[in-house]
């Protein structure tokens, strides 16, 4: 049976198997990027089931409910890749690596799926590649303004035909932090394959389940992330559509991701990817017991964080640093709201400033307020880049104490 593409998931999103085993329930949660205006605080707020399940056949960890894509990625989607230095460095490194290995050259076409503001394509363009982005939200307008040709639309067969007719086959197709977001896996892979020639390369980056388990980073679970990839089910997905994984590596982006390289046809798996596959088995990623223990650890992490914040609140004010998508899962699941956090600070220029976080309704303000008011504690909600944030905030004059929520809730020295 074809896996369902919206609503309750009753069949695995890759193999269609019906036995899905629950790992962890987050209850009903709002969409993490659906920030509210002050007026919207007085209106009903939509929430959806957020539960993590595992396919007993292929091992894919996934959500058991898919929200309509236009709801999750509306035109007003507030996230902009260019505001995250970690990702900009990651994209430059990717372009450097592919160029050094001769996988694209000047004049070749590079297509990025879910290209946001075009940040990934910038370094490829600087190296002489022709670039084209596909992005459904208004971030596409920002990309076009800086010279990155982008169509504002969801990735589809119609868009692929337009690209092929005007630009020809792509030498490189990228899908970073988006390949796990698109709901119909079969159509998605067919469309990617259609863009590629025999020598083309597909590069995917997704949140890696091995990192999620090792760091107990449950905050990466939200309605955008429909699947939490490991190498084995990803390989199966590619093989189902006449493609092969040729290489894979762990990267540090977004708290820990897997970068997978695939080509059309049958190709051998690299030694590096083979070792990663062995590491996955050794770590127990396909064992029910390992995933059950993960769920138990998450519930304990929730209790630990709330306890620490309650102790700190007795001594002074606490604010949140950053309001990334993942923070809204953390805040919603732990029920941390304005009784504990006065506000959330965002970098100047963020479209979230002046809005309220979904679910918890914590106000989002310019980080200048942090420096002016000097609250006693700052909770690093972008904890995966915590050391970098601490250095930046110290440099600009914040004098308070930092708290990290994960991998362990603790006060950190700098």
From TrEMBL:
Q: Which residues form the Methyltransferase putative zinc binding domain?
A: 12-73
Domain of life of the source: Bacteria
**Positions of the C-methyltransferase domain:** 254-407
Q: Which SUPFAM superfamilies match?
A: S-adenosyl-L-methionine-dependent methyltransferases
- Pfam families listed in its UniProt record: Methyltransf_13, Methyltransf_14, Methyltransf_23
Record-given protein name:
Methyltransferase
Native organism is Candidatus Kaiserbacteria bacterium RIFCSPHIGHO2_01_FULL_53_29
């Amino acid at each position: 049976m074809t896996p369902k593409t919206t609503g309750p998931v009753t069949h695995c999103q890759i193999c269609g198997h019906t036995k899905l085993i629950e790992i962890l329930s987050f209850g009903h949660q709002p969409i993490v990027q659906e920030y509210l205006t002050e007026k919207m605080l007085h209106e009903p707020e939509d929430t959806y089931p957020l539960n993590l399940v595992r396919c007993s056949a292929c091992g894919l960890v996934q959500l058991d409910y898919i929200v309509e894509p236009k709801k999750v990625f509306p035109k007003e989607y507030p996230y902009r890749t260019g505001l995250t230095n970690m990702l900009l460095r990651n994209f430059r490194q990717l372009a450097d690596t592919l160029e050094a290995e001769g996988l694209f050259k000047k004049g070749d076409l590079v297509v990025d799926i879910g290209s946001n503001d075009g940040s990934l394509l910038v370094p490829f363009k600087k190296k002489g590649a022709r670039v084209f982005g596909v992005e459904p939200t208004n971030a596409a307008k920002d990309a076009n303004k800086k010279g990155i040709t982008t169509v504002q639309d969801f990735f589809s067969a119609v868009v692929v035909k337009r690209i092929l007719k005007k630009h020809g086959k792509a030498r490189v197709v990228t899908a970073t932090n988006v390949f796990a977001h698109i709901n119909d896996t079969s159509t998605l892979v067919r469309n990617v394959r259609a863009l590629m020639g025999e020598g083309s390369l597909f590069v995917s980056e997704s949140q890696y389940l091995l990192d999620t388990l090792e760091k107990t980073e449950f905050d990466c679970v939200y309605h955008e992330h429909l699947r939490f990839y490991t190498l084995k089910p990803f390989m199966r997905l590619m093989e189902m559509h006449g493609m092969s994984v040729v290489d894979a590596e762990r990267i540090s982006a977004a708290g820990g991701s897997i970068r997978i390289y695939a080509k059309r046809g049958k190709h051998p798996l690299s030694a590096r990817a083979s070792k990663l596959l062995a590491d996955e088995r050794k770590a127990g990623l396909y064992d029910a017991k390992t995933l059950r223990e993960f769920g138990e650890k998450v519930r304990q992490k929730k209790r630990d964080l709330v306890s620490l914040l309650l102790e700190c609140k007795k001594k002074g004010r606490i604010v949140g640093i950053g309001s990334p998508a993942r923070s809204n899962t953390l805040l919603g699941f732990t029920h941390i709201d304005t009784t504990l956090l006065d506000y959330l600070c965002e970098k100047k220029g963020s479209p979230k400033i002046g809005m309220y976080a979904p679910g918890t309704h914590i106000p989002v303000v310019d980080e200048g307020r942090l420096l002016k008011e000097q609250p006693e504690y700052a909770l690093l909600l972008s904890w995966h880049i915590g050391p970098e944030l601490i250095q930046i905030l110290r440099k600009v004059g914040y004098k308070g104490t930092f708290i990290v929520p994960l991998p362990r809730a603790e006060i950190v020295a700098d």
